[in-house]
Amino acid sequence: MDWIRFAKSGKDLTGLRGRLIEVTQDELQKHNKRDDCWTCIRGMVYNVTPYMDYHPGGEEELMKAAGIDGTDLFDQVHRWVNHESMLKECLVGRMTTKTATASKAITLPSSSTGLTPPAAGPPLPNKDSQPRYDWFQTDATVHLAVYAKRKIPSSGCVTVDLKAGILRLEVLLGKLSYMIHLDLARKVEENVSVHTAFSVGKIQVTINKQTRGKWTSLGQPLEFHNTFLCKKKRGPFYRDCRLVSKMEVTHNTHVFRLQLPGGTVMHMAAGKHVYLKAIIEGTEIVRPYTPVDQNLVSASSPSAHESDLYLMIKVYPDGVFTPYLNSLQMGKNISVSGPEGTFSLRPLRDVTHLYLLAGGTGFTPMVRLINLALREVDTIRTTKLLFFNKQEKDILWRCQLDDLAAFNERFQVEYILSEPSASWTGRKGRVDEILLNDLLVRPEGSKCYVCVCGPSAFTEQTLGLLKQLCFSEEECHAFKG
């Protein structure tokens, strides 16, 4: 929030007195110092010098993009951030591919930032391996079938939105995304059902017609219809979800239950997160959160296909987003994206020992991984959670974790406190090499996999320690916000 207030102070943050210019590659490269730092994101150039003191990752991280195209670096760490809004006052102008000796003044399209969305790029090659779709109908229903041409994870990979006759269907297949986007030919009921044949890779969506009869066509194609692209090229798609309940977990953490619209079906696979978006003090703020199951100890299967999302969120009194969310009245809406994230279930094949290292609310992606490991991946003999917190009162779902460990011999949990009380008899301290060497056992003939999530400093330090302990990059995954 300090940066937002500073950016709105009226100061000239670009050094160009409001002019927008075309920037050549040579010109961009000149601005690569701490006190003169420009970077390019999606074809637009920003003077990020004023942002140095406000960047959460510090000056060192920001300087990695100094004087260059920082789009890939940005997407690796901050894809959820709306940089157009956050850096609006720092906009220098547009990158140009023309060679020029001086920067030329330009006029950009009229919008809040002047940013024109980049082209998504052409569909991927090799059409034989690309998904396709077909449709058929009865007098009362329309059935749309998608053939993924590969097996589909049992946790699902489909998000469907149907609103005002517009159908948007997205199928996530690893890092790729197949989309159907149509303005349907006639009026339909705003509810859909989705049936998936996982082993053969077929998804069938059923829609109810408002008026019985035969359609001569399915509808008119819209943007990105029938395309197969890298997921990151699409950008998040938001729908309004209603806050229906809030349950206290600890003194500063709650589970927020968000109800999806009636025309939305969202398959939330393990390891995926969503973005929440709100306008706060006139600025669009976006934050990533990982849905959890309704509870950890349950007789039913993981709630990947439910109509509600459960988000376990720590409220920071001095934060920007969480106080807003915490004050949201029941029944009010908030914008929620579809599933995002790079986590893949493929590395878990044949894993025998799954280690989950969580710092604070970094516990949230571990919830569905625990359920997945215990219910669906028979090869995993041991799932061990190393849960790092400051004090006992900060431990999330401790009773449920203890119950699960007591009733399932394949699950173990270790609590490590950095600021324990005098009565604490468990492990103490912070993550270090000695602790990890003691707890991350690698039996002969085993195949191990480690997942890490927590504050940035915790995650980076833990990854470094795992490397020292000879865990390869292929054996580790870090959930990064």
UniProtKB/TrEMBL annotation:
Belongs to the flavoprotein pyridine nucleotide cytochrome reductase family. Belongs to the cytochrome b5 family. Residues 128-219 form the CS domain. Residues 106-118 have a biased composition (Low complexity). SMART domains: Cyt-b5. Keywords: Endoplasmic reticulum, FAD, Flavoprotein, Heme, Iron, Metal-binding, NAD, Oxidoreductase. Residues 106-126 are annotated as: Disordered. The keyword Lipoprotein does not apply. Residues 236-346 form the FAD-binding FR-type domain. Its cofactor is FAD. It comes from Xiphophorus maculatus (Southern platyfish). Its EC number is 1.6.2.2. FAD binds at residues 287-289, 314, 364. This is Cytochrome b5 reductase 4. One of its GO terms (molecular function) is FAD binding. It catalyses: 2 Fe(III)-[cytochrome b5] + NADH = 2 Fe(II)-[cytochrome b5] + NAD(+) + H(+). It is found in: Endoplasmic reticulum.
